[in-house]
């Protein structure tokens, strides 16, 4: 299905593949008054760029993460870095962060070559990084998280806790978020954690701010606030490097874009004159197949029925069913209680009232083992924390939910385990080095495929997927969508939680909308539009109740 | 999941919600005052059965007994907070106790501060060795200090052989240190209390102190935040060693007969005291003051059993029981706390 892309990252596809866009030099004209003349990545106009990485390479053992990475950032611009998973974006970020040092190539700040020996050096050079996965200290307060290592001091080099909290409160005010600087970070939602990270970057008054998928966990309103912040940073003369898989965001907020594919820069240009299709073509090296609507299959018997499910203070009176061969989407704002309902169905959380029935059999509450025995699989929202054991190998993660079927006389057969993992790695078109590599080494999209493979290997009758494509590139996203459609046509019932409306509209047969812990609407595919879903999710109109 | 911005629809951000702060603070205060409450109840019951328990002499005995433990607990707290453990302190204490006090018979008229300095230096050397292996060698501290626990004890046995330092060889001024009191409180207890307070203040109010908590809370994030992780951990082990060396000299002054078994098994008692005192065994939270109270609780129990004439076997059983209780409580409290904070922020929306 995917020509010429199935090699692992160690063997990058040739940059000038037939359908590929040749690496274009950046356009020369400045769009905004703040953007200075662009330089060729080879570079003969030093001093113009605030920061530039030119022809850098970086490899880890046998895996060449970056073969020829270049990027130039100018004061006052928001610059998008896009590319598929495994294209080398995260490695570029880590080079900017001082975590990795490039094997070759040049790194200039203000036209001067620099070597960043560590994160502290990057910080001192005026670079702030917001990582894709929040990197917080759960036991420390929000204010300490923001100022760790650079806390305001009073006499005797003691930390001035009062001023630290006041300055944190100011930052949150700028962001328009009511976070308490004195609370500890444990228990913060992913969105709130992301806001703490953004506050941290703001507090640095950095000249270059790198945001690695800052919007993946944010709601629309939070994204809008973040964009205001980005605009303010630009106005203050900072350069923002913005990494996102959501191309509409890229077009909204950025002036220039750099595309990476297979470890090299394939395009660096201003947005003017570019379309989303151009970017996608540059990213995947070919035209994307037309994403036809998922095949409508005739749904069968009710597999899952949930009746009057209630958990005090979390969700109330939730009733719905999912039939075999049907994809039901759970839409709503982040925090509306969708994931919590899924966790209750799967038995991770207890519920106070109601019942969950699978194919006519009532499930014991609070027992994931019972749910699994009844054929339920759950692909959780947070794959790093809940979906994978990051230190274990790809193979071990894949087989984790199917160990009982790989057993011979009580021992796990290594051969059977390997065959199982190889089979699923092929079917899911996984990009990996060796099956024995730790799963942490895979890119985000490939990690998600491993989680999917882990559950598909059990041949579930009901698969619950929570944000299945968060932080995954477009191509892998399409693959995941196809996989879900194929599963449904094989008769699997699918309950998909998603905050991305295009995904909800594209993939599902029926849409349930939750708001503040209640089911507020059930919308058929025919009636569904972004407007009907959003109005039910935000409570603007009360659609027909379930 | 907590509330999102969409649900916090106030146009202007309201002032930070103080209720969640009050909740966390209350729980943390409870954590230390909880141990204090156990201590008071325990002392009360014992005193009701045997009033002799509250004699000033017995109280002094308990306090003196605590000084060694509290010093060790301070160093151990610094190490445990950074998600490490120092198991070598019992052996360090033994080596320092013997080598420093042997000087009294080897060097005539040696000033007492010099003996303390030698003990401290011996401990510091051991701590530096531990710290180098953990921070530079990247060997897990459990393995490193388990090894040095045996190695240092082995060196101790090689040096001491069948000898011992006996009370007669110690000058009176040194042997009397534990007896000196101010207003009925042993001088030593005051000095150690000041040291513990300074240590706790350092960990609370200085950058490098807070960085220990950060490292223990999330080591990867600490590296990304530019914290010199190796250097901080090295320092924690060096301080723990130095304090163990100092504690060795105090131990010698207290027991006055030092052979090659001095301090055997102290490492686990101290780790228990630290955990009972509210320091999270996987790092990130807890205070030196709590750990010192934990040490006080353990020596109070020891003394109470003694006074009540209960077989000393129970001492260790009770210490173990308290340890389990502390860890279970810690777990329950943090789970409840996380749930409460989550609930609170989701309620804030409605």
Describe the structure.
- The complex is a heterodimer of chains A (546) and B (350).
- By secondary structure, chain A is of the alpha/beta class.
- Chain A contains 17 helices and 24 strands.
- In chain A, the strands form six sheets. A six-stranded mixed sheet of chain A has the order 6-9-10-3-11-12, with helices on both faces.
- Chain B has 350 residues and is mainly alpha-helical.
- Chain B has one domain (24-341): ABC transporter involved in vitamin B12 uptake, BtuC (Orthogonal Bundle).
- Chain B has 13 helices and two strands, in the order H-H-H-H-H-H-E-E-H-H-H-H-H-H-H.
- In chain B, a hairpin with a 2-residue loop joins strand 1 (181-182) and strand 2.
- In chain B, helix 1 packs antiparallel against helix 13 (313-349) and helix 2 packs antiparallel against helix 10 (229-255).
- The radius of gyration of chain B is 22 Å and the shape is globular.
- The chains are: A alpha/beta (546), B mainly alpha (350).
- Chains A and B meet through helix 2, strand 8, helix 4 and helix 6 of A and helix 1, helix 8, helix 9 and helix 13 of B.
What is the CATH superfamily classification of the largest domain in chain A?
A: P-loop containing nucleotide triphosphate hydrolases
Radius of gyration of chain B, in angstroms, nearest whole number: 22 Å
Report how far apart the termini of chain B are. Answer: 14 Å
| Count of helix runs of chain B | 13
Unreliable stretches covering 5 or more consecutive residues of chain B: 1-18, 346-350
The CATH topology annotation of the largest domain in chain A reads as Rossmann fold
Strand percentage of chain A: 15-25%
| Rg of chain A (CA only) | 24 Å
CATH class of the largest domain in chain A: Alpha Beta
Q: What coarse outline of chain A follows from CA principal-axis ratios?
A: globular
Structural class assignment of chain A = alpha/beta
Distance between the termini of chain A: 40 Å
């Amino acid at each position: 299905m995917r020509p010429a892309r199935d090699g692992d990252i160690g063997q990058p596809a040739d940059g000038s593949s037939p359908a590929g866009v040749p690496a274009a030099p950046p356009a020369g004209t400045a769009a905004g008054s703040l953007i200075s003349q662009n330089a060729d990545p080879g570079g003969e106009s030093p001093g113009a760029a605030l920061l530039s990485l030119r022809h850098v390479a970086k490899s880890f053992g046998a895996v060449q993460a970056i073969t020829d990475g270049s990027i130039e950032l100018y004061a006052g611009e928001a610059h998008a870095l896009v590319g598929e998973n495994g294209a080398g974006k995260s490695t570029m970020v880590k080079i900017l962060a001082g975590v990795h040092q490039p094997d070759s190539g040049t790194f200039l700040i203000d036209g001067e070559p620099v070597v960043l020996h560590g994160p502290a050096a990057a910080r001192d050079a005026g670079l702030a990084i917001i990582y894709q996965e929040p990197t917080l200290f759960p036991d420390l307060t929000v204010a300490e998280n923001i100022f760790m290592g650079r806390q305001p001091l009073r006499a005797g080099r003691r930390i001035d806790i009062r001023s630290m909290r006041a300055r944190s409160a100011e930052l949150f005010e700028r962001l328009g978020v009511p976070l308490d600087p004195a609370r500890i970070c444990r228990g913060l939602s992913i969105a709130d954690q992301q806001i703490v990270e953004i506050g941290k970057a703001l507090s640095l008054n950095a000249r270059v701010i790198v945001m690695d998928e800052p919007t993946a966990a944010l709601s629309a309103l939070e994204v809008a606030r973040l964009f205001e912040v980005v605009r303010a940073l630009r106005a203050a003369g900072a350069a923002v490097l913005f990494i996102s898989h959501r191309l509409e965001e890229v077009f909204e907020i950025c002036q220039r874009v750099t595309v990476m594919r297979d470890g090299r820069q394939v395009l660096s240009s201003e947005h003017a004159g570019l379309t989303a299709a151009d970017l996608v073509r540059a990213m995947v090296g070919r035209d994307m197949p037309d994403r036809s609507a998922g095949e409508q299959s005739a749904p069968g018997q009710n597999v899952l029925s949930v009746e009057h499910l209630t958990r005090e203070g979390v969700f109330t009176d939730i009733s719905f069913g999912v039939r075999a061969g049907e994809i039901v989407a759970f839409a709503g704002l982040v925090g509306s209680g969708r994931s919590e309902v899924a966790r209750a169905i799967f038995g991770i959380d207890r519920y106070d009232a109601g019942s969950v029935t699978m194919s006519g059999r009532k499930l014991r509450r609070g027992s994931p083992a019972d749910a699994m025995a009844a054929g339920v699989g759950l692909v959780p929202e947070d794959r790093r924390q809940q979906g994978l054991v990051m230190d274990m190998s790809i193979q071990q993660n894949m087989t984790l939910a199917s160990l009982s079927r790989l057993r011979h006389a009580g021992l796990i057969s290594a051969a059977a385990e390997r065959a199982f993992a190889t089979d699923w790695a092929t079917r899911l078109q996984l990009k990996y080095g060796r099956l024995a590599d730790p799963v942490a080494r895979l890119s985000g999209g490939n990690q998600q495929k491993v989680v999917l493979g882990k559950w598909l290997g059990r041949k579930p009758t009901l698969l619950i997927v929570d944000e299945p494509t968060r932080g995954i590139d477009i191509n892998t996203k399409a693959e995941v969508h196809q996989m879900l459609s194929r599963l449904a046509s094989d008769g699997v019932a699918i309950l998909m939680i998603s905050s991305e409306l295009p995904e909800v509209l594209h993939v599902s047969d029926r849409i349930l909308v939750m708001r503040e812990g209640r089911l507020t609407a059930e919308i058929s595919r025919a009636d569904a539009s972004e407007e009907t879903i959003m109005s039910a999710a935000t409570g603007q109109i009360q659609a027909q109740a379930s | 999941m907590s509330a999102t911005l969409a649900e916090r629809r106030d146009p202007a951000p309201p002032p930070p919600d103080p209720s969640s702060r009050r909740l966390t603070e209350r729980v943390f205060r409870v954590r230390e005052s909880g141990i204090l409450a156990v201590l008071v109840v325990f002392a009360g019951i014992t005193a009701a059965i045997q009033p002799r328990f509250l004699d000033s002499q017995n109280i002094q005995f308990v306090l003196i007994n605590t000084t060694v433990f509290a010093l060790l607990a301070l160093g151990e707290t610094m190490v445990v907070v950074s998600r490490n453990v120092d198991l070598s302190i019992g052996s360090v204490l033994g080596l320092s106790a013997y080598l420093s006090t042997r000087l009294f018979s080897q060097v005539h008229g040696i000033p007492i501060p010099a003996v303390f300095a030698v003990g401290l230096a011996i401990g510091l050397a051991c701590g530096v060795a531990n710290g180098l292996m953990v921070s530079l060698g990247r060997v897990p501290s459990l393995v490193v200090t388990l090894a040095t626990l045996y190695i240092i004890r082995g060196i101790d046995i090689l040096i001491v052989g069948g000898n011992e330092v006996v009370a007669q060889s110690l000058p009176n001024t040194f042997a009397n240190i534990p007896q000196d009191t101010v207003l009925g409180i042993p001088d030593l207890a005051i000095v150690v209390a000041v040291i513990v307070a300074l240590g706790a203040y350092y960990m609370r109010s200085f950058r490098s102190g807070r960085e220990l908590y950060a490292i223990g809370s999330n080591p990867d994030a600490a590296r990304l935040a530019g914290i010199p992780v190796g250097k901080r951990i090295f320092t924690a082990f060096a301080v723990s060693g130095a304090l163990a060396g100092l504690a060795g000299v105090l131990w010698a002054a207290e027991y006055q007969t030092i052979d090659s078994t001095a301090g055997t098994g102290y490492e686990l008692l101290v780790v228990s005291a630290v955990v009972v005192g509210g320091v999270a065994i996987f790092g990130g939270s807890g205070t030196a003051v709590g750990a010192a109270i934990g040490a006080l609780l353990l020596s109070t129990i020891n003394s109470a059993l003694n006074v009540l004439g209960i077989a000393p076997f129970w001492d260790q059983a009770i210490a173990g029981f308290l340890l389990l209780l502390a860890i279970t409580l810690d777990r329950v409290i943090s789970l409840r706390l996380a749930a409460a904070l989550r609930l609170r922020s989701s309620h804030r929306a409605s």
